[in-house]
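During the no-cost extension, the postdoctoral fellow (Dr. R.K.) reprocessed legacy sequence entries with the updated structure-token encoder. One reprocessed record is reproduced below for audit purposes.
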Amino acid sequence: MDKMIAYCGLDCEKCDAYIATIKDDQALREKTAKIWSEWNHVNILPEHIRCEGCRASGAKFVYCEALCPVRQCALKKGVGTCGDCADIDTCPTVGKVFENAPDARERLKQ
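Re-encoded structure tokens follow.
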């Protein structure tokens, strides 16, 4: 599976943190930090907006690296993605991602 597909099936190449990192786009970092701060009711600074992909080596957004329950579970189970896990259809953790992004499940089935 493409390394730019996250454990949950989201496409990292479409993530603003990834785009801002790859393009070294300070304006996008600032915009993303502001939006994500508002969505999550936390203070996210532009310098926090650094990520090279969930499953790729390199920088990760702090949530993705240390707090994402999907990523932590996949690492613990040693699966390539949630698509490799026998529990994918009943998992409430990745199921929350699928509720908001049904295309993520489809990506994992490919």
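The radius of gyration is 14 Å. Residues 12-109 form one domain. The remaining legacy entries will be reprocessed before the final report is submitted.
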